[in-house]
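Please go through the protein record below and explain what the tokens say about the fold. Record follows.
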Amino acid sequence: MSILFVLIGLSPLLGFSVFNIVRKKRILRPFIAIVASGAVTAAVAVVGPMLVVPDTEKSGITLSEDDMSYLAMTEASAGEYDKALSHIEKLNMEVGDSLNGLLAGFRVSTAQGDFYTARNYASMLNLFVKENNKSLSKAEREIVDALIGDLDLDREDTMKQMKDVLADEIKSYEKKHKYAENMGEAIESAALLASANQKDDYAQVARKLRRLYKKNKSIFALDNVSEAYITALVKCEEYDDLVNYALDSNDASAIAAVANLYMTKKIDDDLFEGLVPESGVYTAVVDRVSTIVDKLDSDKLSKAKIAEYEEKANTIEQLDDNPILATLEKRLEPEKEAEEKKAAAYVQDAGINSVLMNATVAKREIKEALAAAQAADDANLRSLLSQADQVINGDAVGKVTDLDKNLRDAYTASSVLPSDLVTVPDEFVSNGNTAANENRAMINVGIVDCKDFPKIKAYVSTGGVDLTDKSKVSITDAGAVITDFQIEKVKYDSARIYLICDNSGSMSGSIDGLKQAVTKFVKTKTGSEKIDVITFDSSVLENSGLLSDEDKLLEAVEKFRARGGTNIKCGVDAAFSDLKKDEDVLTVFIAMTDGQDSTYGSQERLNELRVKCMENNVILYTIGLGGVNGEYLQSIADSGMGSFVYGSDAVQLEGLYQFIHNQLDENYVITYYAKNTTTKYNRLLEIRETTTGYAGKRTYSLDYASQGASGAVVPGGVRISPNNSGAKVTGYGISSIAMGRYTAGEFTIVGSGFETAKSITVSLEGDTNVPNLKVSTVSDTELRVIVPAKTAYGTYKSVITIDGTTFELDGLRILDAYAAPTVFNFGEYTFEALSVDTNGNTTTLSGNVVMNGYLHFNGDVTLKGNPDGNQLNLSEKAGSYITYTGGIGGLIGQYFGNRADIDAFTSVDLYKDSKTYDKFKLNGLATYAGIGLKNPNMELHGDGIVTYLVDYSLDIPPLANLLDAADVTFSGVLKNSQKVILGDKD
């Protein structure tokens, strides 16, 4: 005897499945067949995948639920029932059980005369409308009731009745959606792109869509129809039609494509004849503005304000010279695009404005693109902008050297043009770097004077941001908000500026750019400034001494030559050697390098630098060029109470020097009394200008001498004092917590002897102290600690006291759960995490770690090996899980959720070649949909986990009851050939 039970999570019509398939945001639900044979064993078999792909898949056109339901009804109305069913399957893949899907299936099967399938749909539909307070038409209600009640129906009359319903629904839909009647034609035309490979093929698609555009422009509102038309026109080089379409439709993607092709000279001016104004119309205005800007008085206006006026003058000149690009920019309005399209439109508009030299607008639009990134419907663009966001708006200075590539790739991804036709404007990349530098350094919190603590004096400079209005300034010190403070703008009588310039051999390709940048810096100096030009390689090469004579300074610049190694410290020491302490003089060091230097590689040397700068009232800025270590240069700038700025090439150097030079005009002293008087070390001071969002941060301590004497703390090390407890702490189980601002988080501490301890307390020490956390004992070897909501993000030390013995653990990180993730790629494996730290051949991923969008890790993940090689070893301790968006549809969803838990991957090898997979035994239980997979053998693929089942258990109430009644046992062994696929299967 054998019994077959089929559990359906979608609809009675689906004859295909895998455990989970993800295509972008679209998810297939499971179809599981459980077969019981005899009274002894049961086996689990996975059916499929047998996926019928409708034409929409080939066309790339994304349709709404209503659209797909409409297509199914129109095909059924025409007697094309197989095509109708494929649209219903597509609809179920997109959204699972829904009123649209169930109604479409019920209507089509009834119209077809398949009353058996219609009855199944009727049962599910009846339950759905009751649970969701929906209603059916009178005719449909009567048919549903008759089918459920097994009443006799007149077959022909019922089919005719349902076809009338279909006709009414089609007519109603077409009345609401003007594009509906041409939807099928648009899908068919766009689908031809999939097989097009010659110019004639693309010309055919272009002809079809051109004819369709003339007939029904509204159809081009369908996602990707416009893109298909643009692609076809570009591929067959019909640029005149592309220009006409862009200007007539005002389609953002078309306008951006035309702008890019025009900037790269693939489209000529004559295609715009009569469509845009001619150049030179405003020449007189441009000349007048330029004359005014040339006469601006640097003694009355700040350098930043003069630079702002110069930029506006240059933009006006570009608009007059380039009316075509100006017209396209005006037509492109990213703010009016749909949420999922805004990021791409902002990137493209930022590129146009960059070429038009409107840097202010370009930088603003780059930031708007970053803000809109998470809503983008293109996963690649979303990922690239997220990576850029970490550098531009975040603290990922270690990734500054990746920003150029991120921006270039994001620009390419944001265009509908084929990648080989996209040319990324260098000005766009430069503006992206400038935006990052401004966010990091627009407000510099310099020396924090705390000798009269709790009275604090903070010396602040800005790159043009006005801090005189207290209502627009917010201050946080050591976790406490400061509301009572005084701001005084300071005007120094004179300034001493030391330009410490790298002339090492690695500068050979950039030395001319450095000369140009320093030359402009010298030429824009004011009468109150003296400049010292110091050059270095592995030792000091030239030292001009402090000079106000421009000619002599320029002579020193002409001596720049690239040679030797790199030693920043010798250049900084040379600047200190001639320095005289003078509180009435602003003293600034600007150290520039493109090399790999380690002369400030120890904490001891950084502490010495900090003390020297504080004793001499020096602010030290660092400028990095090319492949530098951003974190290292940031650490030097931090110790020098300055800021770190970065440029990817020598062209950007001039802007970097000018940015710092502009900052020297805006100086402030902010005085307040500290509220937190207990935190002694690593106090974080943040000063923010609220209208612009720019913020400056400085970490300071009340007693640097004592802090230095205590020695460096080894990250992750455990310190014990006194050692009189039977318990033992060995480290963290989970050491990174991803928390929302208003949600609690948790971490774990591992060791031994916890269950017999009488008293356990845990506190955190960091920028803010968090005492007496809630602690629970998970086992004798594990503690769970709850971190309360609103705990500041940062790195903390955990202080654990167990029966009088104190243990200290460093390196607990609390991360912003909503921050943009960092991406780590290895072959077909893509990891996203809030933090990615690489030390040699070991990469640690922390905070919301997700692999390929489907496998979520509970804790940190360690990858060992060379990422450029073919193999990495993955290990983690906290386990992982897979979530299924929307859970399981249908009645089965009442009995189990949407999550499969997987035991820890203690060690598994990943291979880049996508052919070799390490089969490993999982010593635990993976649970999916009430089926427990015991100690399975697994392979971790990029698109899913292939499980070779050994043993399983069932926890599905209705099935368990049925099998009990059939006298069937719930244990069984599967052959190694049986597989279950968990996760993505694209």
Summary: The mean pLDDT is 77. Residues 490-663 form a domain with the Rossmann fold fold (CATH 3.40.50.410). The first strand starts at residue 2 and ends at 8. Residues 155-176 form the longest helix (22 residues).
